[in-house]
Specification:
The chain is of the alpha/beta class and about 250 residues long. The protein has one domain: Aldolase class I (TIM Barrel), CATH 3.20.20. Helix content is about 45%, strand content about 15%. It has 12 helices and 8 strands. Helix 5 packs across helix 7. It starts with a strand and ends with a helix. The mean pLDDT is about 95. Bound molecules: 2-phosphoglycolic acid.
């Protein structure tokens, strides 16, 4: 059985103080959510404060990015995965489409970041997803396959157990236009097939594939009914503790 994951990506919103306040407001609202793993991803400057205040709770903390270099060094502006781990995080998001689009992160960079994350003891949430143009040209499956293969290249079989994939169609992010459960299910099943072909049936069966893109309290349960959707990566609707808690508690 794959345990679902509901992760909130706070992007470049909230100061350290606001992040702690939202995290503390969230804590009691999701305290009984044993059916899924709950993760929030604040900005770098808030990670330690939030992780300290959530210690002992069922909410885990993720960074939104990490350096592709494993060791410390002269890389101005970068934050190493082991430093993120040291701040109290258990997860890191890599290859988000905003990083691919605005910071030109190619698949091999995403793969290096995933490897650095795993080496530091973090679980990597690896994002993939096609643009509207690629979907309209009938290239959605090929694009996502290329990203999955490229972003996970160089990972060993044991690494794969600590990878979560997030399928986030770019046309659904922040647009209010969610993929239908059928569109998402088709892609999730496809990602699992790609995984089975490249790695093993067992790795594919245990891989958790999250959906992201305009997930809201009123569309989460429809998505979670799909057999290959194992959770959600939520942007806008995770910024408020109340709305994110409704998503986490989709089953009740
Ligand atoms: P959204 O963002 O929920 O605001 O569409 C999702 C994401 O970018 O992870």
């Amino acid at each position: 059985m794959r345990k679902p994951v509901i992760a909130g990506n706070w992007k470049m919103y909230k100061t350290a103080g606001d992040s702690v306040a939202t995290a503390l407001a969230l804590k009691p609202l999701v305290a009984n959510a044993n059916h899924c793993e709950v993760i929030i991803a604040p900005v770098f400057t808030a990670l330690k404060g939030v992780a300290d205040r959530l210690e002992g709770s069922n909410i885990k903390v993720a960074a939104q990015n990490c350096a592709s270099e494993k060791s410390e060094g002269a890389y101005t502006g970068e934050v190493a995965a082991f430093m993120i781990h040291d701040a109290g995080c258990s997860h890191v998001i890599v290859g988000h489409s905003e990083r691919r689009q605005y910071f030109l992160e190619a698949d091999h960079i995403v793969s290096n970041k995933a490897q650095a994350a795993l080496a530091a003891g973090l679980t990597a949430i690896v994002c993939v997803g096609e643009t509207l143009e690629q979907r309209d040209q009938g290239k959605a499956l090929d694009t996502v396959k290329e990203q999955v293969v490229g972003s996970l290249s160089g990972l060993t079989a044991s690494d794969l157990a600590r990878i979560i994939v997030a399928y986030e169609p770019v046309w659904a992010i922040g647009t209010g236009r969610t993929a239908t459960p059928e569109q998402a299910q088709e892609m999730h099943a496809f990602i699992r097939r790609v995984f089975a072909e490249r790695h093993s049936a067992a790795a594919a069966e245990s891989l958790r594939v999250l959906y992201g893109g305009s997930v809201k309290p009123d569309n989460i349960s429809g998505l979670m009914k799909c057999s290959d959707i194992d959770g959600a990566l939520v942007g806008g609707a995770s910024l408020s503790a109340e709305s994110f808690a409704k998503i986490v508690n989709y089953n009740g």
